[in-house]
Design a protein that fits this description.
Order of helices and strands: EHEEEEEEEHHHEH
Number of helices: 5
Number of strands: 9
Structural class: alpha+beta
CATH class: Alpha Beta
CATH architecture: Alpha-Beta Complex
Helix content: 25-40%
Shape: globular
Radius of gyration: 19 Å
Oligomer: single chain
Largest sheet: 4 strands, antiparallel
Length: about 190
């Protein structure tokens, strides 16, 4: 299978460092709004106003966010909504060439256990994991046909949905157990 460096498949830049507010033009995406596996779990209550200096940071449909700093490694594919969004500086913002690579596939590859192992190795030796832009750009991505990329991305999405449902089921069972025990003890 053909492999290409990420830098040849995508523009790579950093998110924006800003002080968020409780209102504004654009949603300000931060790591705490995502689960450990990269699912967006919290609706943002943090915003920033768009101006000439930060308008180039507005996310485009299909941009892939990748956390390359800290103790959590994950990737997430942004899909455009009514309200614009800007990623915080903890994220690398990857803008894939969609003629060559499907954005959700890229996110899936970056979230794969073997990829995370590579990134953990790159960031080892420091107390806080930090991946350099050049290291991320040199990361090699397998490139199957676009149809296969879409199938792999769909499989990954089904897996995420299944895991989320299983977690909800565990939560419901825990609540039922707690209620039952409380009732029996009274």
């Amino acid at each position: 299978m053909i492999k290409k460096q990420l830098l040849g498949l995508s523009d790579i830049r950093f998110g924006l460092y800003a002080k968020p507010k409780s209102f504004g033009h654009a949603v300000y995406l931060q790591v705490r709004q995502f689960s450990e596996d990269g699912r967006r779990t919290v609706k943002s209550e943090e915003y920033i106003n768009i101006n000439e200096k930060n308008s180039s940071h507005i996310l485009q449909d299909g941009d892939v966010l990748f956390v390359g700093k800290g103790n959590r490694l994950f990737s997430w594919c942004y899909r455009k909504t009514k309200q614009p969004a800007i990623a915080s500086s903890i994220f690398f913002v990857l803008r894939p060439d969609t003629r060559v690579i499907y954005p959700e596939y890229l996110s899936t590859i970056l979230n794969a256990p073997q990829s995370k192992a590579v990134f953990l190795q790159l960031g080892s030796g420091t107390s806080i994991l930090s991946i350099r832009k050049s290291e991320l750009g040199a990361f090699e991505v397998p490139l199957p046909a676009m149809s296969k990329q879409k199938k792999i991305a769909a499989l990954a999405e089904l897996h995420r949905e299944e895991v989320a449902l299983a977690q909800q089921l565990i939560e419901q069972r825990q609540n039922l157990y707690t209620a039952l025990i409380s009732k029996l003890i009274k």
